[in-house]
Amino acid sequence: MSAAALTNERSCNDSYRQLPSLSALARYYASKSFPPHTVVTMPALSPTMTSGNIGTWQKAAGDAIAPGDVLVEIETDKAQMDFEFQEDGVLAKVLKDSGEKDVAVGNPIAVMVEEGTDVAAFESFTLDDAGGEKAPPAKESGEEAAESSEPAESGSQTSPSNLPKSDTKQESAPEPQESESSGGRLQTSLEREPSASPSAKALALERGVPIKKVKGTGPGGRITKQDIEKYKPETSAAPSAPAGSTAPTYEDIPASSMRKTIANRLQQSMNQNPHYFVAATVSVTKLLKLRQALNSSADGKYKLSVNDFLIKASAVACKKVPTVNSSWREIDGQVVIRQHNTVDVSVAVATPIGLMTPIVKGVEGLGLSSISAQVKDLGKRARDGKLKPEEYQGGTFTISNMGMNTAIDRFTAVINPPQAGILAVGTTKKVAIPSAAEEGNGVEWDDQVVVTGSFDHKVVDGAVGGEWIREFKKVVENPLEMLL
User: Fold this and answer.
1) CB of 50 within 8 A of CB of 163?
2) In angstroms, rounded to a whole number, what is the distance separating the alpha carbons of residues 50 and 394?
């Protein structure tokens, strides 16, 4: 189930019913001690989510809840997300406080009752009264496969469908065990990461401003871009270190769930996919002139970027060299190379919490204006943390463009498994070349960009990778072909 499972306790009723608004089941059973109530469990906010961390509760015991209200913030392995409740009711008891970590999907986190029910009756309600909780899923060495860029039904070993699924039956509560504790309090996700707008986070990263030391002036203490611009580092002298000790010259920053996922995925890709690289210098002079002409006649309806043209060109090259638009898979013990009929281009987007790759689907059948609109929409929602799982899982080829950074001439990118190729795009440079119109030593300026393709040698042979680069170069240097 992709949403929270709800367990309703009602006297003399063991029947099951479907809750369409939550796509979940509610189970009723008799209770001698408590009024009728509903146990809210940790939701699965993505197809690959097996556990999550409890962030800040937006509702307190006794608060009324309407459909669409945010009940609690939940940190997944991809982002911090809002859990929106879809039923009317009143929050009677919070079973998992802010800061609780690795709460398994399906474990109780709160209790809901109908309006008018005595909330005070649930002060003594415990996890055991909710049916107990199961242990978080064991993390295996292949855990990173859970974050595959393909959907769960793909059949690949890197697909989420091969992950161990949570047992839907309730288990008895484990015996309490005494464990050592540091005495420290678990921090909420908002305490670990101050509330700040995406533009403020990006500016803080650019200027090296310690965002935890910035006082926000926005709504609810939210840090704004203006707060970052006005920040001045403290000039007071640091307290002297105790005699015989040395003040630390570093800061240990805990890795977020998303950072761990990115690390696992990249390590998996480099270890399992034999990369090789093919680079080429491509003239974009004609492309830039075509872009200028189209934008000037658009009457504000669209504004094409160079990246929009390159996404379209990569799709054209993938259709001409379909081997690159393929992936290595193992299905039922049999190794296959799946060749895709559509070109779904994953576009690398830098966000405040890490790199994400939203997908423009069916690029081979889209016009440049449609590609531009989708890239802008997906990029904004990626930076705001509002992408749906299906919008970043399932691509067949990836493009990573660092051309906006004029210091980057070229770079190589790591393949996004199970895809077989990724294109790295550097910045545009003006290069003097021999003039075709003049005799002798005449020169003219040409706008050029260096592109580097990374290919999985299991799927794409060297000559085939070179052929793909040639087709890509051909369509970029003759951009009118994209309009045919």
Assistant:
1) yes
2) 20
Cβ atoms of residues 435 and 252 within 8 Å: no
User: What is the average pLDDT value for the chain, to the nearest integer?
Assistant: 78
pLDDT at residue 190 tops 60:
no
Distance in angstroms (rounded) separating the CA atoms of residues 465 and 456: 9
Give the pLDDT score at 189. Answer: 45
Per-residue pLDDT band at 12 (split at 50, 70, 90):
very low
- Written as six digits, the tokens of 236 are 């007071």
Q: Looking at 310-435, which runs of residues are DSSP E strands?
A: 326-331, 334-339, 345-347, 349-351, 354-356, 359-360, 397-401, 421-434
Q: Which helix (H) or strand (E) holds 289?
A: helix 285-296
Q: Which run of H or E residues covers position 39?
A: strand 37-41
| Tokens (6 digits) for 365 | 């059948």
Torsion angles phi and psi, residue 302, rounded to 5: -155, 165
Q: Which residue has the higher pLDDT, 313 or 132?
A: 313
Q: Which distant-in-sequence residues (6+ apart) come within 8 Å of 325 by Cβ?
A: 318, 319, 339, 340, 343, 396, 397, 420, 421
Question: Could you report the per-residue pLDDT of 420-471, keeping only the tens digit for each?
Answer: 999 999 999 999 998 877 666 788 899 999 999 999 999 999 999 999 999 9
Q: How many helices and strands (H and E) does the chain possess?
A: 8, 21
Q: What angle do CA 460, 463, 465 make, to 5 degrees?
A: 50
Contacts within 8 Å (CB) and 24+ apart, 272-275: 272/417, 273/328, 273/415, 273/417, 273/456, 273/457, 273/458, 274/456, 274/457, 274/458, 275/414, 275/415, 275/454, 275/455, 275/456, 275/457
Which has the closest alpha carbon to 95: 26, 177, 40, 156? 40
For residue 477, count other CB atoms closer than 10 A to its CB.
Answer: 15
- Residue 355's φ and ψ, nearest 5 degrees, are -80, 135
pLDDT, one tens digit per residue, over 45-99 is 776 678 888 888 888 888 888 887 888 888 776 666 778 777 888 898 898 888 8
Query: Rounded CA gap, 112 and 120, in Å?
Result: 12
Model confidence, pTM: 0.58
262, amino acid identity: I
Closest alpha carbon to 350 in 403, 277, 390: 403
**H/E element, 296:** helix 285-296
Question: What would the two tokens of residue 125 be?
Answer: 């309600």
| Dist CA 401 CA 423 (whole Å) | 8
